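#structure-requests
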Amino acid sequence: MDRGNQSNLSEFVLLGLAHSQDIQIILFMAFLMLYLLIVSGNIVIIILITTDHHLHSPMYFLLANLSFVDMWLSSVTTPKMITDFLRENKTISFAGCMSQIFFAHFIAASEMALLVVMAYDRYVAICKPLHYFTIMSLKRCTGLVLTSWTIGFVHAMSHLVVIVQLPFCGPREIDSFFCDMPLVIKLICMDSYELDILMNANCGVVGVTCFILLLISYTYILLMVHQSSKAGASKALSTCSAHITVVMLLFVPCIFIYVWPLNITWVDKFLAVFYSVITPLLNPAIYTLRNKEIKNAVKRFTGYYTDTKGNP
């Protein structure tokens, strides 16, 4: 990292979501509760899938990985945002800013690729049920998950190696609650037009490609099942609707921030909060409330805990 290019710029100032102290206290309490729900909800899903042998299948293996990714996606920015509500000077070091950019893109891109893997899993389960466990073996599932992490890492590194070399000579204020790539680029001491195009193209390769693949996959699944039986189509729609909901919740905000930016400050803040806080919170609810196996696993877990506690 060439510190000379940064003209001794050692930190950035985050303007946050609000300026009123009363509103910041309310936001502190609200986001603290939301973050605790995100962490606890996703941890519960991971524990249930890990400990309950009824859930030891490819679909739930991928779901556990999604919960893990969601938990860390929120943890990249939310704890810093929560503590900043109680601070008058909302600053972040240059290294901390670069870390937020790297991990935000790393985890978000990994989740997008993971959702494509989950769509492939549903395709095999619904369209090729007799060969499901042969195709979706543990080895292949592990390989697909590692591939999604690799895609995220390459995507994030492609951003990081560019931005750490840019000249920052002030201003240093970022009108958001975390170091977002488009906002940090605006602070460089040069024309950012080409960099904006490069960033949009980079994000588009991952985001738009995964989004199109997901739409094609779920459309093909529903068409295939609809041709075979109406009852099967209804069941497939129920199975896939949760996945489609998650896809829309994650991809739509990211596309309007990084691929097709609206450049409206309050809209960008809302969308950033949505994909970094709301989506990781809704994912456990969407999957657990619509999934009978997860509900049964919760009953078995609580029943086992109650029996153990009652019979020491």
